[in-house]
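Tutorial handout. Part one gives the primary structure; part two gives the three-dimensional structure as tokens.
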Amino acid sequence: MSDENLQPVFQIQRVYLKDLSLEQPNSPAIFLEQEAPGIEVSVDVGSEKLADGIFESSVTVTVTAKIKDKVAFLVEGKQAGIFEARNIPEDQLDPLLGIGCPNIVYPYLRSNIADAITRAGFPPIHLSEINFEAFYQQRLQIAADQAKQATEGAATAEAPATIQ
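Part two.
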């Protein structure tokens, strides 16, 4: 039977917490501060082929809370999933791994991050929803811009610009 006659297959094999770390470098003194912390959140998405038709997709979130110039806490979590994706057209596989799979694993990560922060003695931080499609398009644009800069940089033999 040829590949053209096979139906596309997409299945979740497993969702798991791959990494979780918590740092409270200024505890217990930080608990005496009255000011509300400033919160910074960074997100990253990745995928890796594990075997033929089997992929790992992951979402990493880092939450840093600071009061004045002191870190109250830093939590980093990486939630991942193993997915079976067979007979998916090549032009649809990358968006599936970069948009669809992160949409599946992210709710688990949100819960794990909120739980870790609460267990650390702080009020929970509920991460907002992420539009992984917009995030994916932004990453494609950045990659295209970097590729364009690399080809333009190779075409001209000028000295690199300095940023001050």
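Part three, for discussion. The two ends are 62 Å apart (CA to CA). The chain has one domain: 3-147.
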